């Protein structure tokens, strides 16, 4: 093991040339911690004020279009209320005109009565328009809103079903397609009219084995019999 020389200048002189190496943590500049740290959670970005205003304007536009489309209900009660409103309004206008134009011959309590009737008919027209008519209109609009929602749901469900059918048709293999074709062809064959030709009956099987084996055996027996007959005929000819 090596030993350091005590007479080396590094140990004898007062001037220290070497310095200790600082670590990375100590060399890093220190910064003060922030007083408040805001952490934004991941996910959807918050909407800006312009986007919120645009959405509100779009909702208001759709609401106005809906109200204008279903402003006049087609119910019998609404029609009667509108007739009553028109009658009260016309009577109020007539009484008002009579009260101002007939001041010469409507003197005293008659003019006051006509003027009071004017206010009565006018107030009745406002009351009919504000309460019963508006109530009937709101009920009609709510009913039509439910109808439109059901229609949209039905259209959405029909679109989903059509997409699912298209997806299953694309995913189906040739084997499944042949199977479906055979299933479709079966009822068509049942519905087809019967032909005039008599069906050919299949060959009956014997007790042992199939009909094919019996036919071969019969052929062999017939060949043997023909060979015996040929030999017998040859013997007769040779004997003569």
Automatic annotation (TrEMBL):
<feature type="compositionally biased region" description="Basic residues">
    <location>
        <begin position="167"/>
        <end position="182"/>
    </location>
</feature>
<feature type="region of interest" description="Disordered">
    <location>
        <begin position="151"/>
        <end position="240"/>
    </location>
</feature>
<feature type="compositionally biased region" description="Basic and acidic residues">
    <location>
        <begin position="215"/>
        <end position="240"/>
    </location>
</feature>
<protein>
    <submittedName>
        <fullName>Uncharacterized protein</fullName>
    </submittedName>
</protein>
<feature type="compositionally biased region" description="Low complexity">
    <location>
        <begin position="157"/>
        <end position="166"/>
    </location>
</feature>
<feature type="compositionally biased region" description="Low complexity">
    <location>
        <begin position="183"/>
        <end position="192"/>
    </location>
</feature>
<feature type="region of interest" description="Disordered">
    <location>
        <begin position="1"/>
        <end position="60"/>
    </location>
</feature>
<feature type="compositionally biased region" description="Low complexity">
    <location>
        <begin position="22"/>
        <end position="36"/>
    </location>
</feature>
<keyword id="KW-0812">Transmembrane</keyword>
<keyword id="KW-1133">Transmembrane helix</keyword>
<feature type="compositionally biased region" description="Basic and acidic residues">
    <location>
        <begin position="48"/>
        <end position="60"/>
    </location>
</feature>
<feature type="transmembrane region" description="Helical">
    <location>
        <begin position="83"/>
        <end position="102"/>
    </location>
</feature>
<feature type="transmembrane region" description="Helical">
    <location>
        <begin position="108"/>
        <end position="131"/>
    </location>
</feature>
<keyword id="KW-0472">Membrane</keyword>
């Amino acid at each position: 093991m090596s030993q350091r020389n005590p007479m080396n200048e590094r140990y004898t002189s007062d001037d220290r040339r070497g310095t200790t190496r600082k670590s990375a943590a100590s060399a890093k500049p220190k910064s003060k911690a922030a007083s408040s740290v805001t952490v934004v959670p991941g996910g959807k970005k918050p909407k800006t004020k312009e986007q919120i205003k645009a959405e509100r304007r779009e909702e208001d536009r759709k609401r106005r279009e809906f109200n204008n489309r279903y402003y006049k209900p087609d119910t019998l009660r609404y029609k009667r209320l509108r007739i009553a409103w028109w009658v009260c309004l016309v009577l109020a206008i007539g009484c008002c005109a009579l009260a101002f134009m007939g001041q010469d011959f409507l003197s005293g309590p008659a003019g006051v009565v006509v003027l009071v009737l004017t206010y009565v008919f006018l107030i009745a027209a406002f009351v009919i328009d504000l309460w019963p008519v508006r109530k009937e209109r709101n009920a009609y609009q709510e009913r039509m809103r439910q109808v439109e929602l059901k229609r949209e749901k039905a259209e959405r469900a029909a679109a989903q079903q059509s997409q699912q059918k298209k997806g299953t048709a694309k995913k189906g293999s040739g084997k499944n397609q042949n199977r479906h074709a055979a299933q479709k062809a079966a009822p068509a064959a049942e519905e087809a009219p019967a032909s005039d030709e008599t069906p050919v009956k299949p060959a009956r099987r014997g007790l042992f084995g199939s009909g094919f084996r019996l036919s071969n055996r019969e052929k062999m027996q017939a060949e043997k019999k023909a060979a015996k007959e040929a030999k017998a005929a040859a013997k007769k000819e040779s004997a003569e």
